[in-house]
Amino acid sequence: MGTGDEIGSDLTGGNVNEVVRVGDTVRRTAGPWTPTIHALLAWVRAQGVQGVPTPLGVDDQGREVLSYLAGETAGWPVPAWVWESGTARDAGKLLRSWHDATQNFCLTRAVWRMPAHEPAEVICLNDVAPYNMVHDGEQLVGFIDMDMASPGPRGWDLAYLAYRICGWCEDMPAPTDGPPPEARLTHLLDSYGADAAPSASDARSAMRQRLHELAAWTEEHARTTGAHHLLEHAAMYRRDAARL
After folding, report:
1. CA atoms within 13 Å, Cβ hemisphere of 198
2. Could you give the percent of the chain with pLDDT greater than 70?
3. pLDDT at 12
4. Distance separating alpha carbons of residues 53 and 27, to the nearest angstrom
5. In what order do the strands lie in the sheet with 64-67?
6. Predicted model pTM
7. What whole-number distance in Å separates Cα of residue 150 and Cα of residue 212?
8. How much is the pLDDT for 1?
9. Does domain 80-243 have CATH number 3.90.1200.10?
10. What residues of the chain score a pLDDT lower than 50?
11. Backbone angles phi, psi at 103, to 5 degrees
């Protein structure tokens, strides 16, 4: 997210949604899933998880309105904070808090943008990555962009987070002068909590499955929306899955 406070400033990212900042709020494209996601955000915040936006309804243009989390999200070139051990620690702990808080969320009449996966242990964010993290220069502030959330196993979220911050992603390779991806994965899983995290081998297996499914979803999204540049992303996911 940018740090400017002008009215109507565009925010970085937005491969799937149009996003704009208005004052201390963020306005995003809404969909049939928006009421469910807002109810979920309100539920999780009520459980004491503060590192996510506050849902503020829908504006007169039909866009969802969320509170703005001040800080920086990761773009390209990838900022140094992405590779700091404290980022993986904070991300693992925050994801664990989110998962634990979602366990008793009512699923009756819930509408999800993304498919659910079994076992549906928690509500997965499905897109936990540096471009959806907010960092204030010293520590991780929170996660944003929850509209991809849906029920699934804990390891499904951890696998994609590991793919993005441990060094397996082609367009986000970890620095060569730091720990190797396997060591970064161990640190992330330990930060999440060994009592609930998958094994490292299971996490790698889930990464491959996750990437193949993401590639198929991205290809279909590109076909239906005409966003053909996303096909490059899909091809990268398939290459990374093969390399894993």
Report:
1. 20
2. 93
3. 47
4. 12
5. 9-10, 19-22, 25-28, 64-67, 55-58
6. 0.91
7. 18
8. 34
9. yes
10. 1-9, 12-15
11. -60, -30
Residue with tokens 């969802």: 64
pLDDT tens-digit readout, 161-196: 999 999 999 999 999 999 999 999 999 999 999 999
Burial class (CB in 10 A: 0-12, 13-18, 19+), 170: exposed
The predicted pLDDT at position 79 comes to: 96
What whole-number distance in Å separates Cα of residue 52 and Cα of residue 54?
Answer: 7
- Three-state SS sequence of 12-76: CCCCCCCEEEECCEEEECCCCCHHHHHHHHHHHHHCCCCCCCCEEEECCCCCEEEECCCCECCCC
Residue located via tokens 């309100």:
42
Q: Any idea how long the chain is? A: 244
The number of beta carbons lying within 10 Å of the beta carbon of residue 32 is 9
